[in-house]
Amino acid sequence: MPTVVCFLAALVSTPLVLLAIYSNFSIRLETRFLLMGNTLVCDILYLLFYTTITICNTLNLKTPKHICVLFLFVLAVTYFGGVLTAAAMVVDTYVAVLWPLHYVSLLPATRTKTFIMFLWFCSFLFSGIAFLTLNFTQKPLPCPLEVCSLPVILLVALHGDDVLKLCYILFIGIFLLCLSLILCCYIYLCYKTRETGIWKSVSSRASVTFLMHFTLLFLYFSPLILLLTDALLYMSQFIGLRTGLWVTLTICNVLIVLPKAVSPCLYGLRYRQIYNSLKLFLKLKKHRGIAPVR
């Protein structure tokens, strides 16, 4: 099962990267690593709750309604938080490259922590609005929904009234707008730094870092594009219920969870500070495990 595999991969790598970030004082003072740590926390929480729901559905375990609502709310909060923090990481890179002399004053560690709290607040706010909209506008179904499944609920939401459909598309559209702004920032960064010589070599550090961030952002946002396309095709009756459900299942069980499993490995291998901190921690642990000779 792809979801379980991705969760196990993240369960091994994410705590190690978080340990390397939060156990090193100098790393904790850097804005990019604080944002990265917040992204990884959001991702591992999302995988934990989504994998729990998936396993319960696979074992045909009936989830109480209030527990299902709580799980889905946590999924929404952590997903929004991860996407918003990923966008904030791009803004951080943008400021660091274009205004290096003012970077420390603009984004110190204390301000970054406040900003991360603001991102969590926005995540709770957006999720609350989405759930309240779903609660007050959803029409009663012919058959009661007894399965706690995110793909099924996403598809059922399209059977609501026009207000619910509009909110569904609007939320996805907001994230796609964030993606457009992020792409514009990256294109402008490439344009401003093309004369510095850092892009001459394909294997240069700047090129590889840019490619890594671009790949992760593509993996984060491409499922939203596919969800929007699937919703529009389903509402236009170009695809049926079975096809729409199959596409939504593929997006939720594979495409959304994949970057959450891959990102900690890429971050840990790419950033020297994290890699060296983790290597030092493992080396100290190994030395402590060796008993002294008497």
From TrEMBL:
Its predominant location is membrane
Recall the GO molecular function terms of this protein's record: G protein-coupled receptor activity; odorant binding; olfactory receptor activity
Q: Which residues form the G-protein coupled receptors family 1 profile domain?
A: 13-267
Q: Which InterPro entries match?
A: GPCR1_Superfamily_Member (IPR052921), GPCR_Rhodpsn (IPR000276), GPCR_Rhodpsn_7TM (IPR017452)
Q: Where in the cell is the protein located? A: Membrane
* Pfam families registered for this protein in UniProt: 7tm_1 (PF00001)
Which terms are listed as keywords in the entry? Membrane, Transmembrane, Transmembrane helix
Name the residues that span the membrane.
Answer: 35-56, 68-95, 115-134, 141-160, 166-189, 210-233, 245-269
Q: Which residues form a coiled coil?
A: none
Looking at the UniProt record for this protein, which Gene Ontology cellular component terms does it annotate, in alphabetical order? membrane
**Name of the protein in its database record:** G-protein coupled receptors family 1 profile domain-containing protein
